[in-house]
Amino acid sequence: DAGVIQSPRHEVTEMGQEVTLRCKPISGHNSLFWYRQTMMRGLELLIYFNNNVPIDDSGMPEDRFSAKMPNASFSTLKIQPSEPRDSAVYFCASSQVGGTEAFFGQGTRLTVV
Amino acid sequence: QKEVEQNSGPLSVPEGAIASLNCTYSDRGSQSFFWYRQYSGKSPELIMSIYSNGDKEDGRFTAQLNKASQYVSLLIRDSQPSDSATYLCAVNTYGTYKYIFGTGTRLKVLA
Fold first, then answer.
1. How many Å lie between the alpha carbon of A48 and the closest alpha carbon of chain B?
2. Which band of pLDDT confidence, cut at 50, 70 and 90, is reported for residue A21?
3. Cβ contacts of residue B22 below 8 Å, gap of 6+?
4. Which of B92, B91, B87, B93 is nearest to B109 (CA)?
5. B38: number of Cβ within 10 Å
6. CA distance B26 to B58
7. Residue B100 neighbours by CB distance under 10 Å
8. Is residue B23 within 8 angstroms of chain A, CB to CB?
9. How far is A89 from chain B (nearest CA, A)?
10. Residue B96: pLDDT above 90?
11. Most buried residue among A42, B20, B26, B77 by CB atoms closer than 10 A?
């Protein structure tokens, strides 16, 4: 299996622009997670889906962030408008069943200038 | 109190020694426990999972779980310079699907 695939790997954008991050989970995995990692706060869970349904979005920092999972093989995380404090590495992870082993994608390094 | 706590380190050990990494968690309902290794600039890589009290061994790695003390640890035997990385502890609570991570312990293995 190719593992969790994220795109783009790097994104540099100007403040105020819309940013869309993409994730393809491992085939057959039912749970998908979006995390943000910064030096100051470590790995923070933003939102997770089970069977394409958002279960808990309490980690989404504010209304500028939104996430969708239209089908079992694709998810997006959108930031609109982006701000410099959104600069971080964003990871997507998936697991076969909730509570079992989760595997991470390579991440998207977002820089907002 | 943070949900998952780890000493940030760095923990420095000489090559060939045993490295001991520790993690405590606050939710007694936690059921699944994981250790991830993260090299600088890379994504977290799963190295061990443990679900019941006691020890679980996989090669040079041993995970230890004590639910009564809310404590999970990772031992790395015969540490190598290539083990130098940040080790993240993750906890999953029964009935939820989310994995909560500690801030990680940076390990340095000195050649």
1. 7
2. very high
3. B6, B7, B71, B72, B73, B105
4. B87
5. 18
6. 26
7. 20
8. no
9. 9
10. no
11. A42
Give B21-50 pLDDT, tens digit per residue.
Answer: 999 999 888 889 999 999 999 999 999 999
**Cα separation of A89 and B24, whole Å?**
25
As a whole number of angstroms, the distance between CA B84 and CA B105 comes to 10
Nearest CB to B88 within list A31, A43, A105:
A43
B4: how many CB neighbours lie within 10 A of its CB? 22
Whole-angstrom Cα distance, residue B91 to residue B2?
Answer: 12
At residue A102, the pLDDT reads 93
Residue-by-residue DSSP string for B16-35? TSPEEEEEEES-TTEEEEEE
Query: What are the two backbone dihedrals, phi and then psi, of residue B15, each rounded to the nearest 5 degrees?
Result: -55, 135
User: What DSSP element (H or E) covers A16?
Assistant: none
| pLDDT score recorded for residue A1 | 63
* Among A106, A10, A89, residue whose Cα is nearest residue B43: A106
What's the pLDDT tens digit per position in A49-108?
A: 999 999 999 999 889 999 999 999 999 999 999 999 999 999 999 998 777 899 999 999
Residue B97 has pLDDT above 80, yes or no: no
Provide residues of A within 8 Å CB-CB of chain B: 31, 33, 35, 42-43, 45, 48, 50, 55-56, 91, 93, 95, 98-107
